[in-house]
Design goal:
By secondary structure, the protein is α+β, with helices and mostly antiparallel strands. The protein has 19 helices and twelve strands. The protein has four domains: about 45 residues; about 170 residues, GAF domain (Beta-Lactamase), CATH 3.30.450.40; about 180 residues, Orthogonal Bundle (Hypothetical protein af1432); about 110 residues. Strands 1, 2, 3, 4, 7, 8, 9 and 10 form an eight-stranded antiparallel sheet that branches. The protein has a two-stranded antiparallel ribbon with strand order 5-6. The radius of gyration is 42 Å and the shape is elongated.
């Protein structure tokens, strides 16, 4: 039994070598687990960071900010000291610098035109041959990524550019990673160039690792998509603006007398809106237009007269009371000349009859001549009066209108039929008290605001522009509800429409290119608008801002004739 007990004791003795091995193995396993965990956590951080960056890139609509974000993100992910972003030109013949960042040199440059002297464009072709000598152009042409450990020791590319940059700034370019930005169609739209990767712990310059290369390549793919989308949005915006400006130009060109009205009204509208944003007192204390709201207002101003596309040109161009497809004063003159001929012929017949009777009484013949001449003079006095009334600057009093109706009752004989000297339509036109338009023509003109609303409501404006139809169509509304097309009151009118109303009225009053009225003096226009303010036709707060901020005077200096400006700047 004693032997057996000894054996058990011997078996329970732990082998020191095995224990040491187990300890080392456990320590190694813990280290591996720790490193795997750390690697996984780092990867998760990278993924989250990349997802966050991707989301930020996809949401940014400003092209310059987006380009800057791309370089910032790429540098942050790769610990790069510097970064440059090139964009392929529209003709695909060169690379243009758009972003330049260098942490060591505290340099941050962006935008078009900032690099013309310091950083010239990189040609993609030398003659007709691809430019493979420059690393950025090579990447843009081939779509391949280039990772260079030291630009001073690398072969195959001309690194004169980085070396010249170093010589000029005292910088030391070393590691470089150049990655293409490729869109969904496979086209290279830009090149991202990172310089001088740093060790996160020591700050020492190191080559860009394969891990960084993959991360930045993934980022470049996201950036290319975001950049393409932003460029597409901007291109669509440019196309849309070009389209609405072409419509505005076409509408203005319908009349040689109102050409440029829309552009001037647009400029004045935005001048007032700018002052609203600058003012933070009283009525305007809580009013500030965001960029989207300003965009809405811009488009509304450009399109406020789009309904005039259906307005007959003769109404828009009506520069005399009798103007239509032609000035009807010519038709009336022809009638009066025919009437004069019938008078002369009548007296000639009477004279011939006297002579045929053989009673050649000179006194009778003389009296006939005087009577004929008297009738002709009265006839042409009537015509001269009508010609005067055709001028819109002449106010048609009740007395003048009555004389027109008396003239209209006169007739002349033509082809055995009696004809009136004036038609019913001519009487109506000549009897217009002020201006040139009859009530019917005024309704035709007013209809353009209704048509503006109908036409713009058919367009699928995005949510940030959904108010364009309302703003654009309400520029003829008045605070007291007497405006058109819907008779809205002050409470129903948005401030944007109130601004446009003031801009539209002031432009129309001061326009220098209307042949049917004299160019109004600046003081006269202000007096009229003062009256409109008192009658609550226009918004008093916006009008006071318009006057007190001197917007009206700045506009006058730019758009009015010198002889119209009869007020001094305070």
């Amino acid at each position: 039994m004693n032997n057996s007990s000894d054996n058990r004791k011997i078996n329970c003795i732990v082998d020191p070598d095995n224990l040491a091995k187990d300890h080392i193995l456990n320590k190694l396993l813990r280290t591996v687990v720790k490193e795997v965990k750390l690697y996984a956590e780092n990867q998760i951080k990278h993924i989250k960071k990349q997802a966050k960056i991707g989301l930020a890139l996809s949401m940014e609509k400003d092209l310059n900010k987006l380009l800057e974000m791309i370089v910032d993100a790429a540098r942050a992910m790769s610990n790069a000291d510097a970064g440059t972003l090139y964009i392929v030109s529209k003709d695909k013949k060169r690379l243009s610098f758009r972003i330049l960042q260098n942490e060591t040199l505290k340099t941050r440059m962006k935008g078009v035109g900032n690099f013309e002297k310091a950083m010239p464009d990189v040609p993609l072709y030398k003659g007709e041959r691809p430019n493979y000598s420059n690393v950025s152009s090579y990447v843009a042409i081939t779509g391949k990524t280039i990772n260079v450990q030291d630009v001073y020791k690398a072969n195959g590319f001309d690194f004169t550019g980085p070396r010249d940059y170093d010589a000029a700034t005292g910088y030391r370019s070393k590691s470089m990673l150049v990655i293409p930005l490729q869109n969904h169609e496979g086209d290279i739209i830009g090149v991202l160039q990172l310089l001088n990767a740093k060790d996160p712990e020591t700050g020492e310059l190191v080559p860009f690792s394969a891990e960084y290369e993959d991360l930045i390549a993934s980022l470049a793919s996201q950036a290319a998509i975001a950049l393409t989308n932003t460029q597409l949005i901007q291109d669509l915006k440019k196309l849309f603006y070009a389209f609405i400006k072409s419509i505005a130009t076409a509408i203005d060109e319908k009349s040689p007398y109102t050409g440029g009205h829309i552009k001037r009204m647009y400029n004045l509208t935005m001048m007032i809106a700018e002052k609203v944003n600058e003012n933070n007192e009283g009525y305007f204390k809580d009013i500030f237009f965001s960029e989207d709201e300003l965009e809405e207002l811009r488009i509304a101003a450009w399109m406020h007269d789009v309904g005039k596309i259906i307005t007959p040109e003769y109404v828009i161009n009506k520069n005399t009371r009798l103007h239509g497809l032609s000035d009807k004063i010519e038709n009336i003159e022809t009638r009066f000349n025919l009437a004069a001929c019938t008078i002369r012929n009548d007296y000639l017949r009477r004279k011939i009859k006297i002579m045929q009777t053989g009673a050649e009484n000179e006194l009778d013949l003389s009296l006939l001549d005087k009577e004929c001449q008297s009738r002709l003079e009265r006839l042409f006095e009537d015509f001269d009066f009508i010609r005067t009334c055709n001028n819109p600057e002449v106010f048609m009093s009740d007395e003048k209108a009555l004389r027109i109706r008396k003239i209209a009752k006169k007739e002349f004989l033509l082809k055995n039929k009696m004809h009136p000297l004036l038609t019913a339509g001519e009487i109506e036109n000549l009897s217009v008290q002020e201006g040139t338009l009859t009530e019917g023509e005024r309704e035709i003109i007013k209809n353009h605001a209704t048509m503006t609303l109908k036409m713009l409501q058919q367009l699928p404006f995005p949510r940030n522009l959904e108010n364009v139809p309302e703003y654009a169509s309400a520029h003829h509304e008045k605070l007291d509800g007497s405006g058109y097309p819907r008779g809205l009151t002050s409470a129903q009118l948005p401030i944007q429409s109130k601004i446009m109303a003031i801009a539209d009225i002031f432009e129309a009053l001061t326009a220098r290119d209307r042949p049917y009225k004299k160019s109004m003096k600046l003081s006269e226009a202000i007096k009229i608008m003062d009256i409109m303010k008192k009658k609550r036709h226009i918004d008093p707060d916006i009008y006071d801002l318009f006057i007190n901020s001197r917007v009206y005077y700045k506009y006058a200096i730019k758009e009015m004739k010198k002889e119209q400006i009869d007020m001094e700047e305070e």
